[in-house]
Amino acid sequence: MDQHGDCATSFTCAMSLSDQGVSSIPQCYILPPSQRPNTNHVSISTTLPIIDLSTLRDQSLRSQTINEIRIACKEIGVINHGIDESTMKDALEVANEFFNLPNNEKMCLFSDDVHKPVRYGTSLNQAKDEVFCWRDFIKHYSHPISDWIHLWPSNPSTYREKMGKYAMAAQILQYKVMEIILESLGLNHQSYLHEEIKGGSQVVAVNCYPACPEPDLTLGIHPHSDYGSITLLLQTRSGLEIEDKNNNWVPVPFVDGALVVQLGDQMEVLSNGQYKSVIHRAIVNGNEKRFSIMSLHSFAMDKKMGPAIQLVDDQHPKCYNEFSFREFLEFLSCNDVSKGRFLDTLKLI
């Protein structure tokens, strides 16, 4: 029998299983005991930094804010900031409408090809993952938006308008966040990587984590780090957890009207290891569904990115090989990423 058992021949999305009121989850969603979330364990409490980027406009506060960002990137790698409230609200509402569509309509967009510019699915790699994620997602390339938006879902009728507005706002915010992160590394020449960032890639991943009858047996998304430079995350409730330096899982508090900013593998490589990409996962809830919208930003598909030469010297030798977004996709298409991180294949030291 195929390793995916009853999920192999007739894929049923997590949302449909939840709507059917199943009392137990299919075997292909059940993690080995060592990988399951410990829902009975008392969560480790920590205070994550909430940084208001508007303080950067006050020159007397700018250096203090840059230092706060430097500390956030070194310690946890998570900072928060909001976009226009109505834009975020509209995007989340239309996401809800999309996932409430009949299953056969969503399945028209289903693909296990990770190279597809628009695809619907459940797991990181439907074809390779031994255990599926308890989530549904729709992912689409989003920058430049004029190249891709015609491929996005046309139903709901306002999906392209509302999600497109959010995607463009996230792209603008990304420019600002990247500028201050580079400045915090001492790479503050105004033209540094300006064209590469402007011409980079954006993938918007809209996630639905349905209520799960056995939340202690599965995860909404398995532990991983994002491939790109930064990820902007909008969420409707708590559920995101990050791994700290002591390998403990730390819940990220839900802050209404805020975005979580996570550093990805490209930023760890670019900083030559000064900043670390964030290993994270999503737990699921027995009673409530959760939505999130991730705007994943990276350099262009074939742009090779390695450690900044300004951050390499005798005391800080080069720690990583170069890589591109396309090389990450090739790795993803051939591997179950729960078995090993792409970043580990790049390490020299």
UniProtKB/TrEMBL annotation:
The protein's name in its UniProt record: Uncharacterized protein
Q: Which organism is it from?
A: Trifolium pratense
Taxonomic lineage of this organism?
Answer: Eukaryota, Viridiplantae, Streptophyta, Embryophyta, Tracheophyta
